[in-house]
Amino acid sequence: MHITMIGAGYVGLVSGACFADFGHQVVCVDTDAAKIDALKRGKIPIFEPGLDEIVARNVSAGRLTFTTKIAEGLEQAEVAFIAVGTPSRRGDGHADISYVLAAAREIGAVATKPLVVVTKSTVPVGTGDEIEKVLADVKPKAKISVVSNPEFLREGAAIEDFKRPDRIVIGTDDEHAREVMAAVYRPLNLNQAPLLFTGRRTAELTKYAANAFLATKITFINEMADLAEKVGANVQEIARGIGLDNRIGSKFLHAGPGYGGSCFPKDALALIKTAKDFGAPSRIVETVVSVNDTRKASMAERVIAAAGGSLKGKTVAVLGLTFKPNTDDMRDAPSLAIVPALQAAGAKIQAHDPEGMQAAAALLPDVTFCDGPYEAAKGASALVIITEWDVYRALDLAMLKSALATPVIVDLRNIYVPAELAAKGFRYVSIGRPPI
Description:
This protein is α/β, with parallel strands linked by helices and about 425 residues long. It has 17 helices and 14 strands. The protein folds into 2 domains: about 1-200, Rossmann fold, CATH 3.40.50.720; about 200-435, NAD(P)-binding Rossmann-like Domain (Rossmann fold). It has helices at about 10-20, 35-40, 50-60, 70-75, 100-110, 125-140, 160-165, 175-185, 200-230, 235-245, 265-275, 285-305, 335-345, 355-360, 375, 395-405, 420-425, and strands at about 1-5, 25-30, 65, 80, 115-120, 145-150, 170, 195-200, 315-320, 350, 365-370, 380-385, 410, 425-430. It has a 6-stranded parallel sheet with strand order 3-2-1-4-5-6, with helices on both faces. About 45% of the residues are buried.
């Protein structure tokens, strides 16, 4: 099939490349000329494991092309996916769908034949209706169906998620659109990926409900971690004990400094706003957002306490800046709350991240970025692990201890075993586990 992807950002580029890898003909359209030029030269604007190989393979095979001209992109299209940004709107936290509607308007202006328009962007309930109105206004007699097909991609594992999804949610009541979408995803039949056909508004809300629920799981286990510390219990064993219950499941039960990223914070706020607008306030999600924001800000207090109660004139080493491993995404990362709080307490920050330092430099002023974890630790009175990159999981503890001015580690991801760190002479502080 001929597929057009409007937007060559994270979701659009990953989705477009994977569709091309299935054998479809894909054109990615983006208004950012510099980005399109870089993609044509083989430069990938984001870090996602394996994406560069898939893009290169399909560009070489002629199945994946890039353009800034929407008319060119839609010339042969049977399906047009809208995968543009929906950032939180200033003032009320609702998702800003102006880019989505602008894309729909451009599609309507140049469409010359029947087309299925699919919202891949995360959009509030009723956005599909608004897209229909825009298309009807621009081209009243056009045969264009509007479908919701939310993405469920985890940064760092997006290709695996796309090719072996838990489910594919498709929102449409149009029989032709349903047949077209079934054909789009037919290559996944061998993987027995379940296609869940729903109403369009149901599909739109399903995306928000999924992310809000996962954010709730994270926040719940973080509160259990705080309680575990007070009563002398181990949150990792608690998580295993409840996660083995199939009704609960083990995923997203890892205690830490709070959730961040491009989806959970933004989508939780948008769901709260939608719920209020429709007169059905979501009190649980409201609490989750509040508790998570407080948690991220409070993590610096653990570092201050571990360093003796004061950081004035001291250096703190920070390992990991991105919101999670295997991405260069800094959006709503816990480090953006923790590092400034440490600086406000008087600390000088030496930091390392395998992929995020370039993005972090624009967001975290007065930080010294280092080539590796041991360079970051040099002369530091405490070291804090914020993001659990693989490169931090088996550090040379003797080398680390030699580099640090004081052997203090605050592990916000519970990478290490407390008894082992204590045996090596470290003061080791983790999340939700009894101190040694």
